[in-house]
Amino acid sequence: MFDVITNWLASMGSLGVALLMFLENVFPPIPSELVMPFAGYLAATGELSFAAVVLLGTIGSVAGATLWYWVGLWANETRLRRFIDAYGKWLTLSNQDLDRALDWFRRHGAAAVFFGRMVPGMRTLISVPAGLTRMPITPFLLYTALGSFLWTTFLALAGYLLRGQFDRVATWMNPVTNALLLLLLAAYLWRVLRGLKRG
Q: Where are the transmembrane segments (predicted)?
């Protein structure tokens, strides 16, 4: 996974940052924790502009979050619960999970959107309850953009400051990310099998 991301960024440049950050929000297995630091490293070597990396990373992240917001807006809670009843076991998602997400969002509102953009595993999910509860689009975009900007800046800055150490990091990051993806796949299969047994 690390090699795929780094090769993509090296060949596509700043536009690749935006596209990967969009995909990271749509397909969470693509981690922003790899995308943005490497983009920051490329900025440190002079191959990319740091400002462009942060700006396009933020734009890609906001675009992906907005897609899920519209899914929540379109689906409405009844339709989403029907979908979970039919396909939830394949997504390892239950109506109880939805209840918890909605309850957390209703208690924290705008703060959930802002801070959710900086929490791994929450970045994608927080947009759906925002849409389901009909949060107005303007504050949603504002808090999403602010949270995404802080997150992408922090990660890009980490890669920028890492500079000379990046080659050393790359040698162990690829096997670590591959192992992590295998663990995620195993956990997913276990949850699916457990859901099928219950059903």
A: 7-28, 48-71, 140-160, 172-193
